[in-house]
Amino acid sequence: MKIVVQKFGGTSVATPETRRAAYRHVERALNEGYAVAVVVSAMGRRGDPYATDTLLSLLDSGDGAGHEPDPRDRDLLMSCGEIISAVVFAHELRSRGHRVRVFTGAQAGIVTSDDFGNARILDVRTDGLRAALEAGEIAVVTGFQGCTESGDVTTLGRGGSDTTATALGVALGAEVVDIFTDVSGIMTADPRIVEDARQLRQVTYTEICNMAYQGAKVIHPRAVELAMQGNVPIRVRSTLSDDPGTLVTQAAAHLEHGRVMDRYVTGIAHTPNVTQIRVRGEGIGASSIFRLMAEHRISVDFISVTPSEVAFTVPDALADAAVHHLSQLGYRVETRPGCAKVSAVGAGMMGVPGVMARIVDALAEAGIEILQSADSHTTIWVLVDGSQMEDAVRALHRAFQLSGT
Ligand code: ADP
Ligand code: MG
């Protein structure tokens, strides 16, 4: 049995028209002789009636407003959007003459930890899914959710449907996992910001994982990691077209336009809404600062430590808490909210001379101040004011000639 997993994101299942486009992809795979496991997200985006954010907002209004929801209940509520979506998808597929079976995360055998809101997949028990596929049924699985050993419903965190899809792809031994979305593939930058962003035809797991960790939200990094571990290829592609999209595999070199390219910058990614925190003073204890942040589960990024200053960033939403805890250590703390991290991401930047110079020049020319910077062998990060984020993304995209025109 050759199996394909096809994941359809929120916009792809939002309306009857987009769903019809999705069914055509399912039917094409069936015609090609594949057994098809579909993974669906909740329908639409914030504001749409059955989107996850809309369901969640029910807890922030009325008499419950301002009161922290129970995490276990919150996950149960958040799991409803995908259930609604899966049932509608299956119902419409049946009306086209197909045999279909719906699976919740639990029914699909996705066993997770009990970290509600951000559960980790511990095991995938695919007997039920397999049986359905072997019986010639299309399996429609709710994305983004799983279930603990004791039967509590959990959710997998942002981008969780991508993770469901690749986890199933690995567990089922799928030939490929198709991530259908509202763009034609992975681009050299978010096409909402860079108009002439170029679509990448083929990339490695590592490259795309790095892009995703730096904020490219087209696919979730955990999903890529899982696929990489199981060595299952991913295709990121558009629901509304037949474009083959972007192929993500292990391959190290890239064949584009018929030639092998060993590119060192794959693309530009961005993460908005972070606060820069600088702690100053003689003899500051960096380790006590980071231990404090860890104790309060505040994730820190962009760390720079010198004898007289410790600087790092936290998500804007956690800045007040971070400052509160730091001030209790008696340190002088300065904050700058509303910053953005812009990253040039590649696979082989190490040792390529002049990369940093190019970045500094490009940003200076665009009148953008670098608040902080850092680099690794695959990525160069700069922190800029949030108001200049889009300009910074465009400036770096230009500087590395990523549009390729
Ligand atoms: P879905 O609901 O299908 O999961 P997402 O909104 O999660 O869709 O992801 C698709 C979006 O990712 C695109 O609309 C695009 O704006 C954004 N995006 C960010 N960076 C990139 C990139 N490098 N390439 C393509 N899309 C990107
Ligand atoms: Mg997504």
TrEMBL record:
Specify which residues bind substrate according to the UniProt entry for this protein. Answer: T52, E82
* GO BP terms: diaminopimelate biosynthetic process; homoserine biosynthetic process; lysine biosynthetic process via diaminopimelate; threonine biosynthetic process
Q: Which residues form the ACT domain?
A: 344-405
Instruction: Answer yes or no on keyword Cell division.
Output: no
Q: In which pathway does it act?
A: Amino-acid biosynthesis; L-threonine biosynthesis; L-threonine from L-aspartate: step 1/5; Amino-acid biosynthesis; L-lysine biosynthesis via DAP pathway; (S)-tetrahydrodipicolinate from L-aspartate: step 1/4; Amino-acid biosynthesis; L-methionine biosynthesis via de novo pathway; L-homoserine from L-aspartate: step 1/3
Q: What span is annotated as the signal peptide, if there is one?
A: none
**Highest taxon of the lineage:** Bacteria
User: Which top EC class is given?
Assistant: transferase
Could you say which EC number(s) this protein's record lists? 2.7.2.4
In Gene Ontology terms, what is one molecular function of this protein? aspartate kinase activity
Q: Locate the residues binding ATP.
A: K7, F8, G9, G10, T181, D182, R192, K217, V218
Query: Which keywords appear in this protein's UniProt record, sorted alphabetically?
Result: Amino-acid biosynthesis, ATP-binding, Diaminopimelate biosynthesis, Kinase, Lysine biosynthesis, Nucleotide-binding, Transferase
Record field: transmembrane: none
Cellular component per GO? cytosol
Q: Does the keyword Transport apply?
A: no
Reaction catalysed by this enzyme: L-aspartate + ATP = 4-phospho-L-aspartate + ADP
Give the family, as the similarity comment puts it: Belongs to the aspartokinase family.
Its function, per the record, reads: Catalyzes the phosphorylation of the beta-carboxyl group of aspartic acid with ATP to yield 4-phospho-L-aspartate, which is involved in the branched biosynthetic pathway leading to the biosynthesis of amino acids threonine, isoleucine and methionine.
Q: What's the name of the protein?
A: Aspartokinase
Q: Which organism is it from?
A: Alicyclobacillus acidocaldarius subsp. acidocaldarius (strain ATCC 27009 / DSM 446 / BCRC 14685 / JCM 5260 / KCTC 1825 / NBRC 15652 / NCIMB 11725 / NRRL B-14509 / 104-IA)
